[in-house]
Design goal:
single chain, alpha+beta, 7 strands, 32% strand, globular
Length: 130
Amino acid sequence: MTERCLIATVVLLASTSVFAHHGTNASYDPTKAVTLTGVVTRFTFRNPHSFVEFDVKNEQGEMVHWVGEMNSPTVLREAGWTATTIKAGDELTMTLNPSRAGTPRGVVNRMRPILVNGKQVLGTGGSNEN
């Protein structure tokens, strides 16, 4: 193998590990947190990430549709969650690290309590990484 091919191979292999996972901090701001209470409209419990969608009344009294990105179902199951831990119609309080783009999206901070209908759900501990 020529020296040029060897260098190209090393660069290629090194760059694939950099892009192997998108990284939560690229999309969401870990230095900011917002705690929201609203009504669940949908809980999607599937790979690669689970999502909870809920409507929250803002300071002006308008409904804002928020989306919270969660861990994979495998990670959530290990923490005691199921596909029915959160259901449409449930009142939900959770903390999100918001989108860097300023949209009503965020990654769910499971280190903070998550309340469903006023009760803390099991297995809230864990990181925001997969």
